[in-house]
Amino acid sequence: MLEIWIFRLLFLVFVGIFVAQMAARLRLIFRAKNNFSIDHPGARIARFISEVVFQSKVIAGRPVAGVAHALVFWGFVMFAGFTAAMFLRGLAGPQSALNVTGTRWFHAYSLAVVPFAIAVLAGITCLLIRRVVLRPEGLGTHVSGESVVIGFFIAALMVTFLLDFRLVDGTTAYRVNWWAHVLIILAFLVLIPDSKHLHLALSPITVFLKSPLLGTVPNLDFEKEEVGLETVKDLPGKQVLDAFTCVECGRCQDNCPAYATGKLLNPKTIILQNEDALLAGKLGAKLSEVYDRGVLWQCTTCGACENECPVGIEHLPDIIGARRGLVSNGEAAEFLGPVYNNLERRGNIWGFTYDQRQKFLGSAALETFNAARHEYLIWLGCAGAFDADFQKSLRSLFDILRAKRISFGVLEKERCNGDPAKRTGNEYLFQELARENLEELRTAGAKKILTSCPHCLKTLGHDYRAFGFEAQVVHSAVFVADLMKDIRLSPTEVVTYHDPCYLGRYAGHAEEPRDLLARFGATVRDPVRSGHNPFCCGAGGGLLFEEHEEGKRISQQRFEQLQATGAPTVVTACPFCAIMLKGAQASANATTEFVDLMTFVDGRLKSAITPDDGDGRASRDDPRTQTPGEAMRRAEGAAGAERGL
Ligand code: SF4
Ligand code: SF4
């Protein structure tokens, strides 16, 4: 009987400590602004099943460590019933009817758990070796003593569980083993809240609560006098919860282009600095002082950090939220001053006058969109209106569309979509630009929008939805890939393709551009970090305008990765990636060629049916002498012939 009362007392003390520690954190979460959302429940449940139940993200990012972690996780889930029964036995006493440990079904259940216990032992051994011996950079510079202790606790739990089968109930050895088992669990309980192992309890919640759309940063409501995040107490509930959930795995750090190029910004550090400030009660501290100096302006908003985080942490609402706080106090980074000025005065990032856009509209014979005559509205964006290289790509798109007899027009007046303002925290300016554009779009009655700029795709397709704008917005790579699905030309050249973050990662379109390239005769050699997890070009988040990057330029790093493929041509699908990478190429004095995806497709289409006759004169099949429709029909014929049709 004494043993039971000792256990009850210990149970109360340990559980009490656990509850007190958790209460401190819960108070911080619930005093914060409620920004929890469960919209799109289907998508959230699907993610929960994939990322929590099947541990897909943990395994995909780091297969060996991920499988080891998954074994521990699945084992723990299976183990929960055994632990609960052991505690019940201790609290109620071995003779109590509540003690089920002597029943036949409990024995059967325990036997079923044995393979899981062995799997947990194998998994935790791997993780301990990785942490103590291999010590990858992402886990930090020193070995965490607490993690090692918890690792040994987990191993000891499995050993005591397995020993349970060898010992006879009622013997001293059995009781010693039982005490060891339950005491380890109680010790575990008090260690958890103050350690990264709190993710065991919180990560299923954060994964479910994470926005289904990457990089969701809700608009500010100026009527409620919202200005962004200035101090620690402004962090909303989900961001506070995130701060307590970080498992310090370093996946965000490993994937961050700013960190990889020697900048001070480390997304993991941002989250841990939030946690430290919250627990230290520094609620009045300015976020820009909590974080390392200048880091808020080093983020390209590429989204790699939150996309790779296995526990549902969202970094961008923190970073952009804190940028908003700075902008609202007139403390925006210096390099943004001229950009904001250009956007305010001229409605575009470069400050050009709109007669230049008009000239392009005239030379490309573009009609003003009319919903009665045109199916698609082409959104040009700042680059489409003013960047000569990108205009070449758009002309290719127009040729393709005209050849397919697709009707399209453009807005007479178009402002920057506001992406640079939104991602740099100038929410007021973003909403001003959005309001003007939405007025134009609604008046025009556009229902289907085509754009070649992934940033316009994200802003018009997602951010404008918050204003009730529901038009379908498609990137030209996706649209043309579908339009040309019947054409396949023989492979003639090797290229590498750079996935724009806002297309490959944000919009999930990594396959369509490759498919298009392959069908138009390119053999694609992927660089490191491609597809859905590309390495950024360095332009996003307003950094297109930052000339004094700390450390190595992100664009330089990406250019070297593309060069390392050995492909002589780099294909891009974003005007800003092209600007950044061409800049890096010029600095490196390299001969690599750059071509936009649309220009590549259009060029291959025309050259496929216009073999060079060697005398330099335009042949009967020369694209310069053909209408686009003729070129397309001939290409389709050629493609059919190649397929033996
Ligand atoms: S969004 Fe990209 S650049 Fe910014 S912190 Fe995350 S990984 Fe780094
Ligand atoms: S924020 Fe996510 S990815 Fe980064 S260290 Fe924490 S748990 Fe890992």
User: What strand line-up does the widest sheet have?
Assistant: 2-1-3-4
Tally of alpha and pi helices: 29
The CATH C-level class name of the largest domain: Mainly Alpha
CATH-derived topology of the largest domain: Fumarate Reductase Cytochrome B subunit
- Bound molecule types: iron/sulfur cluster
Give average pLDDT, whole number.
91
Anisotropy-based shape: elongated
Helix content: 55-70%
Unreliable segments (pLDDT under 50, ≥5 consecutive)? Answer: 612-628, 638-645
What's the main sheet like? 4 strands, parallel
CATH 2nd-level architecture of the largest domain: Up-down Bundle
Count of beta strands: 8
Rg: 29 Å
Strand content: 5-15%
Give the count of structural domains.
4
N→C terminal distance = 88 Å
Account of the 3D structure:
- By secondary structure, this protein is mainly alpha-helical.
- It folds into four domains: 2-209, Fumarate Reductase Cytochrome B subunit, CATH 1.20.950; 222-331, Alpha-helical ferredoxin (Fumarate Reductase Iron-sulfur Protein, Chain B, domain 2); 342-474, Rossmann fold; 481-642, 3-Layer(aba) Sandwich (Rossmann fold), CATH 3.40.50.
- The chain has helices at 2-31, 41-53, 56-61, 63-92, 104-134, 145-163, 172-191, 199-209, 237-245, 251-255, 257-260, 267-279, 287-290, 304-308, 316-328, 337-346, 355-363, 381-386, 388-403, 419-423, 427-444, 454-461, 476-483, 501-505, 511-519, 554-563, 575-588, 597-608, 628-642, and strands spanning 376-379, 408-409, 448-451, 472-475, 489-497, 520-524, 569-572, 593-596.
- The strands form two sheets. The chain has a four-stranded parallel beta sheet. A four-stranded parallel beta sheet has the order 6-5-7-8.
- β3 (448-451), α22 and β4 (472-475) form a beta-alpha-beta unit.
- The chain is elongated and about 95 Å long.
- The protein starts with a helix and ends with a helix.
- Residues 612-628 and 638-645 have low confidence and may be disordered.
- It binds iron/sulfur cluster (2 copies).
- Residues 246-252, 267-268, 271, 308-309, 311, 313 line the site of one iron/sulfur cluster.
